[in-house]
Specification:
CATH superfamily of chain B: Molybdopterin biosynthesis MoaE subunit
Order of helices and strands of chain B: EHEEEHEEEHEE
Largest sheet of chain B: 5 strands, antiparallel
Structural class of chain B: alpha+beta
CATH architecture of chain B: Alpha-Beta Complex
Low-confidence stretches of chain A: none
CATH topology of chain B: Aldehyde Oxidoreductase, domain 3
Oligomer: heterodimer
Distance between the termini of chain A: 43 Å
Distance between the termini of chain B: 35 Å
Number of domains of chain A: 1
Mean pLDDT of chain A: 94
Largest interface: A-B, 19 and 29 residues
Mean pLDDT of chain B: 97
Shape of chain B: elongated
Chain lengths: 82, 136
């Protein structure tokens, strides 16, 4: 069974994919790392980014964090505020 | 007070919000758009934020600063959108009884914002553009 998740993209990740919101289909019980692997497959250029973090529901998430279809997921490329 | 805004940052009203009779020191840090990066002329900066998370991360930083220093009032305002040379990108204001705490808390807040808060800037040069920090 697959479940749909949506992913917000900012900064360089938006430029590299040409999208600010992606709808992805991930396996049930998928973790952050599984989603990243899928994204890298679709958008190999994302691998050029120095470091890519993932936020789930507005909090930084570890690679083994379990995803659900209700989550608000965001890719967080290296920040550069200030 | 913590805010993300597309409007120009109003320093006078931020200062007014920081003033309190117990405060003997108010420290203001202003981050300003510079006209060059390593001598390459900058035309403008484009800032964007994941607003919801940026606010909550800034709140965490302010809470931590509160734990470490006796802060009376604080203000953190970050601007987003297109900014020209000389415009303010960020304002950090700290009011405390004595100056050492205000200086230290202010520095802690701006340094940590640069590390953890999901805000991004793209430098637009006269001959190209780059997302800051994004590439090795």
């Amino acid at each position: 069974m697959n479940s749909p998740v949506s992913v917000l993209l900012f900064g360089i990740t938006r430029d590299l994919t040409g999208q600010s919101l992606l709808s992805m289909s991930v396996d049930q019980e998928a973790r952050v790392q599984d989603l990243l692997d899928q994204l890298y497959q679709h958008y190999p250029k994302l691998a050029d980014i120095k470091s890519l973090l993932v936020a789930v529901n507005g909090e930084y998430a570890e690679r083994d964090h379990l995803l659900t279809s209700k989550d608000e997921i965001a890719l967080i490329p290296p920040v550069s505020g200030g | 007070m913590i805010a993300i805004t597309t409007e120009p940052i109003d320093v006078a009203s931020a200062l007014q919000n920081l003033q309190t009779e117990q405060a003997g020191a108010i420290d203001l840090f202003l981050g300003v758009v510079r006209d060059n990066t390593k001598k390459r002329p900058v035309d403008r900066l484009e800032y964007e934020a994941y607003d919801r998370m940026a606010i909550s991360e800034m709140q965490k930083i302010a809470d931590e600063a509160h734990r470490q220093w006796p802060i009376l009032r604080y203000t953190i305002i970050h601007r987003t959108g297109t900014l020209r040379t000389g415009e303010l990108a960020v304002l950090i204001g700290i009011a405390s009884a004595h100056r050492a705490d205000a200086f230290e808390a202010c520095r802690y807040i701006i340094d940590t914002i640069k590390q953890t808060v999901p805000i991004w800037k793209k430098e637009i040069f006269t001959d190209g553009e780059v997302w800051v920090n994004a590439h090795p």
